[in-house]
Amino acid sequence: MGDPEGTSSWLKSLNISDIFGWKDHGVYGALAAIVISILVPALFAALFFGKKKGKIRGVPVEVGGEAGYAVRNARKTELVEVPWQGVPTMAHLFEQSCNKYSHNQFLGTRKVIQKEFVTSSDGRKFEKLHLGDYEWESFGEVFARVSNFASGLLKLGHNVDSRVAIFSDTRAEWLIALQGCFRQNVTVVTIYASLGEDALIHSLNETEVSTLICDSKQLKKLDVIRSSLTSIENIIYFEDDNKEEDAFSGISSNWTISSFREVEKLGKESPFESSLPSKNAIAVIMYTSGSTGLPKGVMITHGNMIATTAAVMTVIPNLGSKDVYLAYLPLAHVFEMAAESVMLAAGVAIGYGSPLTMTDTSNKIKKGTKGDVTVLKPTLLTVVPAIIDRIRDGVVKTVDKKGGLVKNIFHFAYNRRLAAVKGSWLGAWGLEKLVWDTIVFKQIRTVLGGQLRFMLCGGAPLSGDSQRFINICMGAPVGQGYGLTETFAGAAFSEWDDLSVGRVGPPLPCCYMKLVSWEEGGYLTSDKPMPRGEIVVGGFSVTAGYFKNQEKTKEVFKVDEKGMRWFYTGDIGQFHPDGCLEIIDRKKDIVKLQHGEYISLGKVEAALSACDYVDNIMVYADPFHNYCVALVVGSYQSLEKWAQQVGIDYQDFPDLCSKPETVTEVLQSISKVAKSAKLEKTEIPAKIKLLPYPWTPESGLVTAALKIKREQLKTKFKDDLLKLYA
Predict the structure, then answer these.
(1) Half-sphere exposure (CA, 13 Å, Cβ side) for 373?
(2) CATH superfamily of domain region 593-724
(3) Comparing C-alpha atoms, which of 227, 222, 273, 271 is closest to residue 245?
(4) Quick one: DSSP state of residue 507?
(5) For this UniProt entry, which segments traverse the membrane (predicted)?
(6) Res. 104 pLDDT band, cuts 50 70 90
(7) What's residue 726's pLDDT?
(8) Chain segment 423-475, per-residue pLDDT in tens
């Protein structure tokens, strides 16, 4: 019986197969390690271990604007605006980095060696790729391509006063096109490759884009909506092996259609002088995948991008040209664009991959060939929490399947390391760590290439268990970030030596963060033991507002009496005594029930996601009732295993999810998790609708960062929600 339809989504591609190849000598070594791990700490604890004194990471500061509790980064008395003098914009930064690191490798791409299609038992076809090694271009070579593309864009007839849109998956040419536009002070509109037709038409028409850059596979999609696009004049497509540009052959169109290489050639033959922008120029109009209605275009200035880049560079330890970064998240998302901006500034090599080719067992990787992480061996990686959760679940299930001594050794080692991490900063990095890393965790780390030294996590809250797992099994600190498109990802970032969980660190040095009381929700800056309130971000990373949406801009962006710009996030947070922020709620997620009780949907969803049977969940509360319900995407592996254990017959996964006994089992398990998380009775779903198919960005039900789109889910499952309250 095959996987249910839809599990080929990019998240499901992160399968973890047999990662434990321990031989007999490995087992004996592990047994020896157990003895060492107990004796050595006892002998040396007095000398090397102990509680690290509390470090102050953020300090209160007096700022203008609405009254509240404001904090700045403890390491900087003044806000950071640029990484070094003379780089007011991303165009200046790109040019100077390319000069500084001219001969260093910069952008790497894997060529397709072989492509084939396999057919599953249910008749569906899946593409499988055999990819080669990374082929690299130096900083100097990339600068030449960027300059050529910038000139070619003008030679093609693009008006510099109009906008360019990029509608493509992440790849090296995406970044080259972006920087090429910047060299001619052209504003770039970014659009998710997974965006639906209505949102795509809205984004392109609203910004009056005249030149559209896309994957060749997007050409057919554009052809379908061609009559609805009012301003497009030029189409530039990235070449690939599919030859889908033939989709336009024979079609009468006023569009000029050119390949990316053709535009580069035009520019090389007819070079133009660069026209670098100012720091206040709009670099990017970034359309969010938003949870409600049509996407909003956030206007991001060059100064915003430079400020976040400068700030993050101070947080990642020893960042430099010896590092290698795997780029695979959508560049149309602020998290990935900010990360690649940092890598550019620090001279880091960027190897491009995709979620579907990331590991040796990813969906698009031909069996017996290597995934991106195995070939690239990155030292730096950005992830969203759903990816970490997927990796963690895969490792744990593999260990449990092994059973016996392997399972016992793993859990013993993990618990020893967990106790050390929780109990002592030095204990987290001491001699015992070296022993367990060598015997137990080294093999696990090959899942992510084996060289990972730092992980940047953002897009959604990361559970404490998953963060500890990465710290221990992958041996890497996790820099958990908090930011929004409206702050170009620049708000808070946890520091590498902070071993606490559930927090997002102090403010980045490019901004201040302030809590403003929200009396209606009961969150006050006067609360004890920690001040609480709505999170407001002010400083150089705060963007210029929403494109052609002054009403919404005025609602959430404010300028104080000192001229500082503030963004009201709608998130609720609290500041710990050391100046680190914890996100505890969101204003939009709070619903008042029939009898006056408040329920925080996001908080409940985060707690219930720990249930083994839950792949994804949306909690829904009707204010005219006194209980909540939930839509639950079932975990295929966990429910299939349960069904086999209890002897339930079923035809396929949708059939299993529809059975009353399955729904009862999941509901009971959710209730147990809720009680262990100390949720109130009104916060525990009284009824659920169990769904068999995952929510993916392609379905429009989750964002590119895998956060649920609440309004879209409510609309799609309106009838199911009504039945749950019937």
Answers:
(1) 22
(2) ANL, C-terminal domain (3.30.300.30)
(3) 222
(4) B
(5) 27-49
(6) very high
(7) 81
(8) 655 555 567 778 888 888 888 898 899 999 999 998 777 878 888 888 889 88
Is the domain covering 58-78+483-587 a CATH 2.30.38.10 domain? yes
CB distance 491 to 482 below 8 Å: yes
| Peptide bond connecting 529 to the previous residue in cis, omega within 30 degrees of 0 | yes
Q: Which of 301, 312, 178, 317 is nearest to 236 (CA)?
A: 178
Structure tokens at 100: 């500084």
Residue pair 113/134 in contact by the 8 Å Cβ criterion: no
Q: Could you tell me the CA-to-CA distances from 427 to 412, 470, 488, 617 in Å, in that order? A: 16, 16, 36, 37
Task: Share the mean pLDDT of the chain.
Answer: 87
Distance CA 320, CA 339 (A): 14
- Crossing angle of helices 601-608 and 660-676, rounded to 10°: 110
58-78+483-587 and 593-724 agree in CATH topology: no
In the predicted model, is pLDDT for residue 518 greater than 60? yes
From CA 65, how far away is CA 512, in angstroms rounded?
12
| pLDDT exceeds cutoff 80 at 485 | yes
Which helix (H) or strand (E) segment holds residue 680: the answer is: none
Exposure string of 592-616, with b = 16+ CB inside 10 Å and e = fewer, is ebeeeebbbbbbbbbbbbbbbbbbb
Cα 510 from Cα 490, distance rounded (Å): 7
> Which CATH code for domain 90-352?
3.40.50.12780
Residue identified by tokens 């602020």 is: 334
Tell me what the mean pLDDT of segment 264-271 comes to. 97
Mean pLDDT within 567-587: 94
> CA 506, 507, 508, 509 torsion: positive or negative?
negative
Q: Given pLDDT bands bounded at 50, 70 and 90, which one contains residue 235?
A: very high
SS3 595: coil
What is the reported pLDDT for 31? 54
List the chain domain ranges. 10-48+380-450+452-481, 58-78+483-587, 90-352, 593-724
- For the residues 150-161, what does the mean pLDDT come to? 96
